Structures are given as C-alpha cells and as structure tokens.
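User: Okay, second chain of the day. Same drill as before: sequence in, structure tokens out.
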Amino acid sequence: MFISRKFAPDLGHVRCSIPEEDAPAWAAGVTYPLNARVVRDHRIYQSAIPDNLGLDPLVEDQSVVAARWVFDRYTNAFACFDGVLSNATVAFEEPDAEVPWLDPSFGIDPASAPIILDMPGLSGVDTLILFGVRASSARLICMDLNDKVLLDRTSNISGRQVGNWWEWFFGPFSAYSDKFIALDIPGPTRRILIALQGGQVRLGEIFLGTSFPIGAAQVGSTEGRSISGSRYSFNDYGSLTLAKGPTRVEMDYRVVASKALWDQIKPELDRNSGSLVAAIGSTTRASSVQFGILGPVKWGEDLPDEYEYSFTITGVA
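Assistant: Same drill. Structure tokens below.
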C-alpha cells in the first residue's frame, strides 16, 4: 500500500484549453462596485465594498470579516486544482477548434479533447491520479526538462474490462469508470500534459504527488461509509425540524508493516496527518484508491516482527 503526498503545481504556469470567462480579470486601475466579481490568479473574488480601487484580491486576508475582496472559488478551468472533489472542471460548451499553445506534433485534436491541461515546472512527482473524471479516454504525456517525451499512454475510462476472475483480482488497472491512475511517472519528468476525450467531459480533481510505501493493506478490511450531516432537532417553538447538512464519506484502511518500515513511516504519517493525500490500497482494487484528508493513525498490536495499524481518509473520492 502507498500514501502519496500532494504536490501543488504553480498555477501561474499551468495552461488549460478551457477559456477563463467566469468574470473579468482584475485590473489595478479599475474601480469596482459592491458585489463586482473578478478573476485573479485563476480564482474568483467578489468585492465586499463599493469604490474598490487598487486593492489586490490576492493579498486580502480571507480569515477576517473585514476582507474587501472575498474569495468565492477557483475558475471553472482550474477548479480541478482546488482540492475539493465536488468542484469540477467542466467542459460546458463545444471545445475550441484551436488551442494556440498546444504543440501540433502531439497529434491531439482539440475539437475532440474538450479538456487539455499542460503542467510544466514539476519536480519529484511519481504519481498522477484523476478523480471524478468523466471522459471516454485520457491521454498522459510526460516530458523531461528538454520536452523529450518519456511516457505517452492512452487509457479508456469506461469501467474495468476483464475476461476472468483472475484478471479482476490480480490484474492492475490504469483507469476505472471515474478514475485514472499512473504510479509510474518517470523520475526526470518536469512537464505533464493530460488530454481528456469524449462528450460532456469533466474532471473533479487532478492529484500530483510523491508516493511512499506504508505496508500491506489487509484484504477485505478496507471499509467505507457515508456520514450525514443532517440532524433532527426541536426549534424554539417545540416543533421537530430537519436541519440539512452535507454528507461526508470516510474510508478505513488496516495495514501491516514490518518493524523496520514502521519506524520510517510513522513520523511521515504524523507529518501528513490533516493534509490532503491519496491512498492507494491496491492497484487491483479501484475502490481502494481514494483522495481526502489523512486522519490520525491508530496502532494496535506491536508484534515481534511487524506492526498492525489503521487510519482513516475523510472526504474520499
């Protein structure tokens, strides 16, 4: 089993084939009225004051009530980088016939690939997973610092196709009905290009990370559950009312590691607790590949040669 730390690319260098038309780009010399919406660094902000002039939305402290620019969300083109699976990048309209920055030598037709992402400036990334993806196929191209192609792979995203039980349980997969996984990103990779093909294409989250082994996931012990935030309560007048809340999803993993490995990974798990990670329980089980917040580690029996422990991923994909 593996845990992958999330790598956040510099969005200032990332390019997307979907135009950012959610709102006008912020300009320092423009006076914005109350509730005006602007795009700044691929994020949408709304003005909380009238006569908003010369205030950069990026430097506003979003933790205070008096923020003059209030962060709303990422633009549609870059929503797949915001860490929230439900905020997806969606190809609403017909794709552009031309994408000026796309190298024609790749042979990618923008008319049939509504979402194309170009991510340069990478380092140390060995894992790429697409969560909440709806497309007919995904093409992954990895390049080095000189744009030499190191890996070029196309996978169908239409459910897992197998011919027998042996293949189902022991054959690794690269794509499932809503996921695409690549655990073999070449070490020298500095640039990754993703092209999603099909109709009504969408991408919930693109996860780039560095994976480290944490032991062997116990077969049949991975368990998921949905926890509703809705509650019944009595109001001030004695009437029973339903307070609706969001539903969160959790996934439990039970793992066995050698004593030597446990001594190495315990500090790493502690450092990443509370962070967004990807958990890869098994490359033959699509349901064991999840994305969310790493919860606290619970360790059980300290055996002579191995260590048994468990952890929870909250808000899973």
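The longest strand covers residues 202-213.

User: Thanks, on to the next one.
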